[in-house]
TrEMBL record:
Residues 1-28 form the signal peptide. This is Cystatin domain-containing protein. SMART domains: CY (SM00043). PANTHER family: CYSTEINE PROTEINASE INHIBITOR 5. Keywords: Protease inhibitor, Signal, Thiol protease inhibitor. InterPro entries: Cystatin_dom, Cystatin_sf, Prot_inh_cystat_CS.
Length: 117
């Protein structure tokens, strides 16, 4: 019995810490990381793609003005969540968009909506 308790005392920290490690590994995926260089040509390309795709769907006739800020999230590929300004010639508005891109640079517009604030 005492031997059993000793084994438990030894095993418990092992199980406990391996649980903690697996939990932190899971939560590390899906974290949004700020994009440091929003003028990066690739980031601008993603923003242009978002506006183009939105124009196809909504026939909005928007043109990208600037990328305000952005974050990336590693998934199976990368999610880009960008705040951008776009104009339709009469008005400039701020939008928030999410574009997914895989390792082969295939892109998909996930969301595009007016952003307030
Ligand atoms: C541009 O956007 C503004 C504000 O949303 C809207 O009132 C206007 O009708 C739009 N103009 C064109 C040409 O689509």
């Amino acid at each position: 019995m005492q031997q059993f308790q000793q084994i438990l005392v030894l095993l418990f920290p092992l199980i406990f810490f391996s649980l903690i490690i697996s939990i932190t590994e899971v939560s590390a995926v899906g974290e949004w990381t700020p994009i440091k260089d929003i003028k990066d040509p690739h980031v601008v390309e993603i923003a242009k793609f978002a506006v183009d795709e939105y124009n196809k769907i909504g026939n909005a006739g928007l043109k990208l003005t600037t990328v305000v800020s952005g974050e990336t999230q590693v998934v199976s590929g990368t999610n880009y969540r960008l705040i951008l300004k776009a104009t339709n010639k009469t008005a400039t508005k701020t939008y928030r968009t999410i574009v997914w891109e895989d390792a082969f640079k295939n892109k998909k517009l996930t969301s595009f909506e007016p952003f307030l604030g």
